[in-house]
Every structure is written in C-alpha cells, then in structure tokens.
Amino acid sequence: MTFTTEQLEQYVSGQLIGRGDVQCSGAEIDTRRALHGKVFFALKGEHADGHDFVEDAVQKGCSAVVLSRPIKCEVPVVLVDCPRSALFELALKRREFVTGVVIAITGSVGKTTTKNLIADLLGSDAVRSPMSFNNELGIPLTMLDAEGSSFVVIEVGANEVGEIPKLSTLVQPDVAVLTAIAPAHLEGFGSIEAIAKEKCSLLESLGEDGTAIIGRGVDVSEASISCPLICIDDLPWSFSQTPSGKSFISMDGSECELKLLGAHNAMNGALSILATEEAIKRSAVNCSRVELLQSIMAVQPTEGRMSSHLVDGVTFINDAYNANPASMNAL
After folding, report:
1. What is the pTM of this model?
2. Are 111 and 29 within 8 A, CB to CB?
3. CA-CA distances (angstroms) from residue 45 to 49, 50, 130?
C-alpha cells in the first residue's frame, strides 16, 4: 500500500522539500537492499552515515529520502531532527494498514528459528522479519513491508530494559510466543529476573482476544497476562533427537522428524505448530495439524544455526551464528 510524500511529511513531523504527490511504499536504511519505490532513511551509525549514501539510494530507485540535514537530490527530501525516530513514527502511524494476523516471537534463545518455522508453515501469505530484524529499526521496516499481507511473523528482541514495551506498541500482536528465559545480554539487563520481566512484557501487550504461548520451563507467574495462555509444559508432548541428531516431536499420537538438529529445536517446532494453528484460526485459511506436521518436516534449518551440510562424505555442522551461552549449550 502506498502513501504520498506529503503524507510522509505529516507522519514524521518533518519539512518537505520537493513534490508532495510522489507515491511511496515501505522504507529502507541500507542501499544494499531493494530500494525501488521506498523511502530511504539516512541513519548515522558508529561506522557509517546514511547521508553519504543518498545518491546511491536515488540511483537505485528510492521515492524519497528522510534526512537530518539538507542534501540536494532528484527526489523529494523530508528533513527531520532524527531519521531513526522518524522511521519508528512512520511505521507507528501506518500500523492501521497492517490488517493481517500478527505473530510475534521473543525469548532468550530460539527466536529466529521459531520465526522462520512459523513463516514457512504459513507459506507465501506471510511476511517475516528478514534475518534477525528484531529491534527498533528492523521491526518498523518489516511492519511497513507487511501492509496488506495476510500474516506477519515478527521477531522481537531486546538488549536492555524498556525496549520490548516500546516495540509492542508498534507490533500489537495477535499471537505471542515466548520461547525461553536464559542469561543473555546481562550487561544490559543486570539479572535474569529483569530479562524475564522484559520478555513477558510482549505477552502482557496482548489483548483479551490474543493468545500467549510459552516454551518449556518458562515461568510467567509474575506477569499480568489477560488472554488465554498455552504452555508446552501442560501438553503431553515429548521432544528428543534421533541417533543422527535430528529433532523429533511426539504429540497426540503423531510423530514428526524435522530436518533441524537437537531436542531444543523439536520444542521450537512444537511452539511453531501451536502459533501457526492460532494464527490460522484468525484467518480464512484451512489447514489441519496433520498438514502442518507434514509441512514442518520439510522445512530447512536457518543457515548458521545448527545447519548440516554433507561434503564429500563428511558432515559439517554450521552453528557459527553469534549466540549466547544458553544457545551454545542446547542439546
């Protein structure tokens, strides 16, 4: 869905220089990604300044640019005090156009794997967070891309206290999954209790008609959750791994071997099935659990997260993605 540069000016409380009738769709902060028709936000980071890449963004087809200082270019310019804050404001103002079912995933471990499993189960109708776009930059970009989609699968992360409550105001999930609580980013949180409180704030953002889903051993007793809660611990399901290391789920008389490795990924798979079922209930899609089990068995692991590769008769396991100790200790 599109908006004009005049609307963009109003959304971000900026100053428009140039035409106000140019159509825009979505946003981007990286000129290495697809830019055609999108608004380029020139962010200043530790190692690079987006203002230095405005010409590149224009050449790659951006419809407008949001800057903190004037730069002459061939597309409309919107001047703001802080492009980073403006990006979040744009997504927040456009939130009403995200009309599909929103599934959000948080937790100390397993977020990206669970997110990708859910998105794969939902199929082409789902927009997902690319890579680990789980912060105040990645989530607005994903939400803007999700306008008009049937499903949105969002990963929600945090490095310090207060991030998830802010992100929840934008995400506004229908279904939320909390995979696990473990010591991660302690330099920002200070304690595992603070981590638990932060992660639980996503579940607390759910309305009464939402659904919260939590993984094994997750304690949410201190959280104020107003919607139905599904806890893996309350289900007679088992998670293990085969002699070759493949994830194995046993549920309600059905058995399922995934292409993923480790018993921990079997639980991520079960969480994904539960979340997908809840999302489907809120849509016009018809899909049984048997069909979901068949589909999840075909899902490939996320690259860099326990992905197995056979080369000249030798099996290599790529688990090189940056992770916390709980991820590295998972069996």
Report:
1. 0.90
2. no
3. 6, 8, 20
